[in-house]
Design a protein that fits this description.
single chain; 113 residues; alpha+beta; three-stranded antiparallel β-sheet; 3 strands; globular; Viral_Replic_Matur_Polypro; RT_RNaseH_2; Reverse transcriptase/retrotransposon-derived protein RNase H-like domain-containing protein
Length: 113
C-alpha cells in the first residue's frame, strides 16, 4: 500500500486533502514520469503533518444543529461540517466531517457568477 493510498483512506479526517495531494496524484499517474519536485515534497510533508496532528472528529448528534463551512480556490473545493457539543463541561465547536476534491481542468475555466 502506498503512502497516498493510506492517506486517502483518512481523507474525511483531513481538511483540504485533495488540494494538498494534487501534485502527489499527478506523479502517481501511470501516464506521467515520476519526478519528486519541491511542490511534491511539500505536499507530502503537509499530508504527513495533517495525519499526525488531525483534529478529532465529533460523533454527530442529530438532535443538535450543524454548521457547514465551504471553501473554494483555483485548485479545489471543500467543505467542513461542524457541530457545537459539550466537551469537558464546555461548549466546543468541532468538525464532524471533511470533504474536498480537485478542480477538473474544464471546471478551472468556469467564471464566477
Amino acid at each position: 500500500m502506498s503512502f497516498l493510498e493510506f492517506a486517502s483512506y483518512y481523507r474525511q479526517h483531513l481538511r483540504d486533502f485533495e488540494i494538498h495531494a494534487r501534485s502527489l496524484f499527478t506523479i502517481s499517474d501511470q501516464q506521467s514520469v515520476f519526478e519528486m519536485t519541491q511542490e511534491s515534497i511539500q505536499a507530502y510533508d503537509k499530508i504527513k503533518y495533517a495525519l499526525t496532528n488531525a483534529p478529532f472528529l465529533l460523533i454527530p448528534y442529530w438532535n443538535l444543529s450543524f454548521k457547514l463551512y465551504i471553501y473554494a480556490c483555483g485548485e479545489g473545493l471543500g467543505a467542513a461540517l461542524h457541530q457545537v457539543q459539550i466537551v469537558n463541561d464546555k461548549p466546543y465547536e468541532g468538525p464532524v466531517f471533511f470533504i474536498s476534491r480537485q478542480i477538473k481542468p474544464t471546471e478551472a475555466r468556469y467564471r464566477g457568477s
